[in-house]
Amino acid sequence: MSGALAILGPGTLGLSAAQWSAECGLETRLLGRTREHAEAGLQEIHRRWDSALAKGRLTPEGRNQALGNLTAAAFQTTALEGVSALLEALPEDPGIKALALTSAARWGHPDLLLLSGTSGLPISELAQRAGLVGRLVGFHLFVPVPRMAVVEMAVAPGTGSAWVDRTRNLGQTLRKRVVQVRDQPGFAAARMALAQGLEAMRLLEAGVASAEDLDALMTLGYGHPVGPLELSDRVGLDLRLHIADGLEAAGEIRFHPPSLLRAHVARGATGLKARQGFYPWDPKGRRI
User: Which of 138, 169, 184, 207 is the most exposed place for a label (fewest CB within 10 A)?
Assistant: First the structure.
């Protein structure tokens, strides 16, 4: 890339993506609501690099190079100067995402590559809402970004080939296998993971086995790195419910959410971020 990669949103996805982008040698700009908001995210990434250095997973030279590649700023009219691509990593709310993307298109260069980090909101609908039809591309990175070797690129009908090619090149620069999928609710990855997660919830709800045992069948029996219920906690039960509701509303009744999922979300037990879901979690993101 000839310019910087801006990442909007210093949350779980944004921090992980910014960390990896800087480690890959890209000039990276982390953007927040205010400079202080972005700087807090920057300090968290510095802490992660210090920890990786102490554990021997990062060399002093690698840490220093990454530090030099990463800056923080407020998302405002001057934030995109010298930026060639922007990845929004905001909450899964189409209104919030569309408003930010519209502002980015207005403030940035006409050739600014605009990417949404959504894991399943239809890109065509988001682009329509943001006034970016034919320009916006889905760029679904998996967390933790440094460890996950794939990115799901969702392309809506009518998207310009130049935007698609540039998105693919960015994915390759980030050392990811780029899997292009057709734009639809849930794309491909979220649909597959959601189907397994919902079935595990139904089995748990029916008393077939405990959460631990259901997950063990998939990790120990099929070699999955994490079971469907633990994965749901990590993704966020509210996000799981949001995607399932959207798919059911579109006529796909096989994604009907179990009552157990609704009950968890209703009482705020949304998974890791709430420190309680199908499992309890400690402040460092570990199962208790």
Answer: 207
